[in-house]
Specification:
Elements (H helix, E strand, L loop, with lengths): L31 H43 L1 H28 L5 H11 L4 E8 L3 E8 L4 H17 L7 E10 L7 E9 L5
Antiparallel strand pairs: 1-2, 2-4, 3-4
């Protein structure tokens, strides 16, 4: 009696195995092609999100800039009014500063001019007296034919100013800073500098 066989089981070596293994589909659960596609898809998605965010930020900033420009344009009239008020306040402040300087001047201008004029030599003409913070500059001319005589006359005048009880104590220096004659017959031009003492009221 022959042994019964299961008809569903293959018989050994029933035909030659002609399969081409390299061309068979992958039998792994997650294939390499799927992983590569998933990786590139993720990178593409991230780049798209970044590009979208940059685009949104740019549009948002442009919107903000446009809004501020509209606000500035709407407030131009107020800005011009504020600038006009600032100019007016600046002019008023300059007047107040000038008045304060005049009130707190280290010397009374009228007295100083009277003392300068009372002690000057006969042939001297005073053209201008300027102040520059901590000093005064007096310019004028001296009608002397001899430069030596003019120099002596100015030297004596400066010495008298230094010894004057009302002028001398207010200045640390009274010096002749310039003496020149432009033409032979012209008077001598001179410049005398007065430097205030530190702390002079």
């Amino acid at each position: 009696m022959t042994e019964s066989r299961n008809p569903f089981l293959p018989r050994p070596q029933w035909h030659v195995d002609c399969r081409i293994v390299a061309e068979l589909p992958e039998d792994s659960i997650v294939g390499r092609r799927f992983l590569a596609k998933a990786l590139f898809g993720s990178v593409t998605l991230i780049l798209c999100l970044i590009a979208g965010w940059l685009l949104y930020s740019g549009l948002s900033q442009r919107d903000h800039i446009g809004d501020w420009e509209r606000r500035l344009a709407d407030n131009q009239a107020e800005v011009r009014e504020i600038q006009r008020l600032q100019r007016e306040y600046g002019l008023e402040a300059a007047k107040i500063d000038a008045a304060y300087t005049l009130v707190n001047s280290p010397l009374v201008v009228s007295e100083f001019i009277a003392q300068i004029g009372g002690t000057r030599p006969e042939r001297m003409t005073i053209d201008i007296i300027e102040t520059n913070g901590g000093s005064l500059v007096m310019r004028g001319s001296l009608s002397e034919t001899s430069s030596e005589r003019a120099s002596r006359s100015l030297g004596k005048y400066i010495e008298d100013l230094r010894k004057n009880r009302q002028i001398g104590p207010k200045f640390s220096q009274i010096v002749l800073t310039s003496l020149e004659r432009r033409e032979n017959n012209d008077p001598l031009s001179f410049e005398i500098s007065f430097v205030f003492r530190p702390g002079t009221p």
